[in-house]
UniProtKB/TrEMBL annotation:
One of its GO terms (biological process) is arginyl-tRNA aminoacylation. It comes from Alicyclobacillus hesperidum. Its EC number is 6.1.1.19. GO terms for molecular function: arginine-tRNA ligase activity; ATP binding. A motif ('HIGH' region) lies at residues 122-132. Keywords: Aminoacyl-tRNA synthetase, ATP-binding, Cytoplasm, Ligase, Nucleotide-binding, Protein biosynthesis. Its main location: cytoplasm. InterPro entries: Arg-tRNA-ligase (IPR001278), Arg-tRNA-synth_N (IPR005148), Arg-tRNA-synth_N_sf (IPR036695), ArgRS_core (IPR035684), DALR_anticod-bd (IPR008909), Rossmann-like_a/b/a_fold (IPR014729), tRNAsynth_Ia_anticodon-bd (IPR009080). This is Arginine--tRNA ligase. It comes from the Bacteria.
Length: 566
């Protein structure tokens, strides 16, 4: 929905000649509501209009007073202060949230664009690391946020399913592995074998040769090597998919690194033909010294291609075959240089989409101060973390609401939601710490707090029995300050979505829904809903229903369930 800010900006644009899109961003919510609901500082127009800001503000005040929904416009200093016509505005926002909450959030700005989002991308036969968890959570949210905004999104899982590691996996499995044990617990068992391989290789370095031998066999199509490799992939994927199901995460494509095995020659040939390949210590690289970057390695001295080459082939694939005009990579901040190099090489190759490639980086997450998985020895497994969160959630729910019907289902939504929300409420670049007692605190800035607020709204509506009936804000009711604060929050849904999308930052949506919940809970505690008399009761019920819709949508967008009861 075009927000009231847009209506104001359009009118101001007509008067000042400045672009409306810039004016929208100048409009503020004054910290002190006495001053009005919205304010526009006019200092920026002074130079070009050759008038002082106070005069501009007062001219604009005259002009804007006539706009639908604006109750009062006045100039103060260089500021234009605007007060909205509360009941008309309440009706329009509540109506939107009730009729089509999608329109409250979205102006479908992405129509006509296709975005490929690369997220999760764990490595086969290794535990799901913290980077993969954060990538999965942030990526899934970005996918949903962008779809809501009208983009066509292709979600891609760029699985790590190729490389010398698999030679070692095969060698270790052939030496010490057992089919039954692996089947039961593929990722843990295969990783155990892999760790053992490294340990034993320290005393028996000839093991490394065996690993290399098997990787070469794999590359050359050796039957048994390929069968084992496929099997490792199938078993690991099965385990990962279990985790994705728990997290409620989906992909449009599973295209692992091996998918590009036969698609890299074309890139290498093109690089060579364009004179971009140079030799460096036996390897073939693209020299990026002119851009203050180390060379991008395309082919190692032994002729094998590497990570970057696969990413170049994958980028072309996403553009040409998947039809993406924008490429997004949700990958840990430690790979910053890798993506700078890949994007630069795409640019040197003349790919016009190179300008629309973004590395969406994020920081570490620690679990009770520990890293999720480390190279050897100590490993915290994601599924254990999720299971414990679900168990704890169940314990809390049983205590709070022993008669709740679907306790297991709700515990799953709450436990998983707690993990997801804890990740997303912080700006992604920052490090995240995870402690069960914090993330499951129903009174903190947590997933359970937001879900509980949603369930509270559902419960009011259930008791009123109005769930099926269409409600709306009766125009004869003038919202009081508490209701008004909530309505203004609901009205900001569109701004939250646009910013979250433009900055690839789901935390904008997570913080938005927290604000909505704070405003709703204040309303709930201050203003009797069911005990009020009509038309006030009808107004408050409509506002409750509108809020419920907005919270449910926001939760969906960041990947959380919204149970009706908890
Ligand atoms: N297109 C990409 N490079 N995506 C990210 C892949 C992440 C890689 N599997 C890793 O664990 O480090």
């Amino acid at each position: 929905m075009k927000s009231i800010k847009h209506a104001i900006a359009t009118a101001v644009a007509e008067h000042t000649g400045f672009p409306a899109a810039d004016i929208v961003n100048l409009i503020e919510y004054p910290p002190n509501p006495e001053l009005g609901d919205l304010a526009l500082p006019c200092f920026q127009f002074a130079k070009q209009l050759r008038k002082n800001p106070a005069l501009i503000a007062s001219e604009l005040a005259d002009k804007l007073a006539g706009i639908d929904g604006i109750g009062n416009a006045n100039a103060q200093g260089g500021y234009l202060n605007l007060t909205l016509e509360r009941s008309t505005y309440a009706l329009s926002i509540v109506d939107r949230a009730l009729q089509s909450v999608h329109d409250l959030f979205s102006e479908e700005r992405g129509t006509g664009h296709t975005v490929a989002v690369d997220y999760s991308a764990p490595n086969i036969a290794k535990p799901f690391g913290v980077g993969h968890l954060r990538s999965t959570i942030i990526g899934q949210a970005i996918v949903r946020l962008m779809r809501e905004d009208g983009y066509r999104v292709e979600g891609v899982n760029h699985l790590g399913d190729w490389g010398t590691q698999f030679g070692k996996n095969i060698a270790a499995y052939l030496k010490w592995g057992d089919e039954e044990t692996v089947r039961k617990n593929p990722v843990r068992e295969l990783f155990k074998l892999y760790v053992r391989f490294h340990e034993e290789a320290r005393e028996h370095p000839e093991l490394e040769d065996e690993g290399r031998y098997w990787f070469k066999q794999l590359e050359e199509g050796h039957e048994q090597a390929n069968r084992l490799w496929r099997w490792f992939i199938d078993e690991s994927l099965r385990a990962f998919q279990e985790t994705y199901k728990t997290l409620g995460v989906e992909f449009d494509h599973y295209l692992g690194e091996s998918f590009y095995n036969d698609k890299m020659d074309a890139i290498v040939d093109e690089l060579r033909a364009k004179g971009l390949l140079v030799e460096d210590d036996g390897a073939e690289v693209v020299d990026l010294s002119a851009y203050d970057m180390p060379p991008c390695i395309i082919k190692k001295s032994d002729g094998t291609s590497i990570y970057a080459t696969r990413d170049l082939a994958a980028a072309d694939y996403r553009h040409r075959v998947l039809g993406a005009d924008t490429l997004v990579y949700v990958v840990g901040a430690e790979q910053k240089l890798h993506f700078q190099q890949v994007f630069k090489v795409l640019e040197l190759l003349g790919r016009d989409y190179a300008k629309r490639c973004t590395h969406v980086a994020f920081g570490l997450m620690k679990f009770n101060g520990e890293r999720l998985s480390t190279r050897r020895g100590h490993v915290v497994y994601l599924e254990d973390v999720l299971n414990k969160a679900i168990e704890e959630a169940k314990r809390i729910i049983q205590e709070k609401n022993p008669n709740l019907a679907d306790q297991d289902g709700v515990a799953r939504s709450v436990g998983v939601g707690a993990v997801i929300f804890n990740d997303l409420k912080t700006y992604r670049i920052h490090e995240v710490d995870f402690r069960y007692e914090d993330v499951l605190n129903f009174d903190g800035e947590t997933g359970p707090y937001v879900q509980y607020t949603h369930a509270r709204a559902c419960s009011v509506l259930r008791k009123a029995g109005t769930d099926a009936q269409p409600l709306n804000w009766p125009t004869q009711v003038q919202p009081d300050d508490v209701e008004w604060a909530l309505i203004l929050r609901l009205a900001q849904a569109g701004e939250a979505l646009a910013r979250a999308v433009d900055e690839f930052d789901p935390s904008v949506m997570a913080r938005y829904v927290l604000h909505v919940c704070h405003a709703f809970n204040r309303f709930y505690h201050n203003n009797p809903i069911l005990q009020a008399d009509d038309p006030l009761r009808a107004a408050r019920l409509a506002l409750t229903q509108a809020t419920r819709n907005v919270i449910a949508k926001a939760l969906y967008l960041i990947g959380l369930d919204a149970p009706q009861e908890m």
